[in-house]
Amino acid sequence: MADNTQILLRERPKGKLEESHFELRQAPMPVPSDGQLLLRTILLSQDAANRAWMQGATYKSAVEEGDVMHGYALSEVVESRAPDYSPGDLVFAESGWQEYAALDARAVGRAPDHRPLTHLISVLGVAGKTAYHGLLDVSGIEAGETLLVSAAAGSVGSLVGQIGKLKGARVVGVAGGPEKCGWVVDTLGFDACIDYKGEDVSAAIAEHCPRGVDVYFDNVGGAVLQAALFAMNDHGRISCCGAVSMYDGGPLTGPVGVPGLIVIKRLRLEGFIVSDFADRDAEAERDLAAWAADGRLVVVEDVIEGLENAPRGLIGLLAGENRGKRMIRVAPDPR
Amino acid sequence: MADNTQILLRERPKGKLEESHFELRQAPMPVPSDGQLLLRTILLSQDAANRAWMQGATYKSAVEEGDVMHGYALSEVVESRAPDYSPGDLVFAESGWQEYAALDARAVGRAPDHRPLTHLISVLGVAGKTAYHGLLDVSGIEAGETLLVSAAAGSVGSLVGQIGKLKGARVVGVAGGPEKCGWVVDTLGFDACIDYKGEDVSAAIAEHCPRGVDVYFDNVGGAVLQAALFAMNDHGRISCCGAVSMYDGGPLTGPVGVPGLIVIKRLRLEGFIVSDFADRDAEAERDLAAWAADGRLVVVEDVIEGLENAPRGLIGLLAGENRGKRMIRVAPDPR
Predict the structure, then answer these.
(1) Nearest to A94, CA basis, from A114, A78, A72
(2) A4-122+300-329 — its CATH code?
(3) Would you call A270 and B272 a contact, using CB atoms and an 8 Å cutoff?
(4) DSSP 8-state assignment for residue A4
(5) How large is the ipTM?
(6) Is-above-0.90 flag for pTM?
(7) Which of B240, B263, B272 is opposite residue A241, by nearest beta carbon?
(8) How many Å is the Cα radius of gyration of chain A?
(9) Which CATH number is correct for A126-275, 3.40.50.720, 1.10.940.10, 3.40.630.30, 2.115.10.20?
(10) Which among A116, A211, A294, B247 has most CB atoms closer than 10 A?
């Protein structure tokens, strides 16, 4: 039987993630036991959180040295030893960075029948639902309010800002570099985008958010969160989605002004992860699919071919080279 | 006519507050204009926030050099040039650190008829309502949950912990020094109290909160907030009431772990000030008065005689020398 190509975390990174921290190897094809499914990975999601998983336990256990690198995937059932699944079924699974995985059927979720399949990783996947729930269910946004979004060109931020515009907010992004910022405004339709690499972020927030910031959707933490805290309006809300500025060897420090500004301005900071809102996923999927279908949401995907390119893809994502949702195509679409 | 003794902020402190930053002077008796009241200060509240007001605008404008020091008071109407008030009426007012003040009637609030009058500054005043709303309306607390309270011997903390016990929570305080901690347990009825000056706070939280912390009521910020963040349970709530560790020349830095821990644990941090809950004050006053009357709340007051002792009183409060609600008696009870 064929081998199973896997990528391991060879060594836990101490500073910046490098390709040498990974190792590609051939392993025997996994054999599903009773109640399990043999899955073939089609599309592998790449997320900044993958880097955080290497540092220690988060909302899931840490990736240990020698483990197949963890990752969410859209996978096809190749062989089923569980009653509810048949070969050819599509599922969401924590398959990891490998061609094949044998997982308990209870640990996977059935994927809806939707083409292109890439949408199941982007707008209808974790990225889209994170944007949807994090903006609409965590912080809320009202027409006429000002929404600030960091990592605005990224998988989640690009959707958060567009959903904010759909809801009638003024939307200002933060991204790295003038070209990316121009693209955020021209292609995604944000009202403005601040280049954190080239501009004084505090001054630029003041300029582009003349009525202050009502909601800040935070993907990055660090200096941008600090600048946002000072720009928040009283009773402002901050959706804490991620802290990518600190994942890849960045300093583990918080912004100045916590908790003084939280008290004075009566801010609400709220962390979330997408699975907390599973009971609202059906509504999210319906809205997101409708908005993508009629063009109100521009869905931006950044698909890299080949499992062997996953390390390079994640390293580049952490450096901010992607626009929209980065994923790895591990196998062609079935059927 | 008699003079009006006042205490000014002579110089804005750069580091620790000292008596030399204040100046006592005699001013002419103020004369109320149309729509104003001439008020005599009876009891002057002393609050850690007074120190924060000296540094810059907060939820109110800053105290400027040369200003009469700002402060909340229970005052008696001496002369009324407004329709709804008569001499002898008791009011809550931002009278400041002086014997007499002339204020717009619209800027004061009528005080309920309640003896002892000191309760109107402690359990039925800003301290009591801050504890009530901050615990019950901001973070909520359920029977069986674990509540951690910093500045546990202070005006607000002493009440927060007792209200937590009333609601069936396990309540652990944090205070300075073994004697104060013993008093918090023995007199206020907390389940445990951690001495932040003598104990490893993280280890002590782990010991006394074996099921983690569900709600942290934060009066101090800084290192205790940091330790609390690491001890919070998933979906934990933090009521951000104050940051006294940073007010008196402390470093303006936030705890390590923000916002990473907020995301991972899906925490909600929420700042508040008591006036945000004015529409719930009647219920708060009714509950607090009932609990104090039947002894379920131990009301601890620390009354210092004489306006001239206000600077010393505030400096001592910032150093943590008070137990319960510190106030200055400026004039005897009327009637």
Answers:
(1) A72
(2) 3.90.180.10
(3) no
(4) E
(5) 0.92
(6) yes
(7) B263
(8) 20
(9) 3.40.50.720
(10) B247
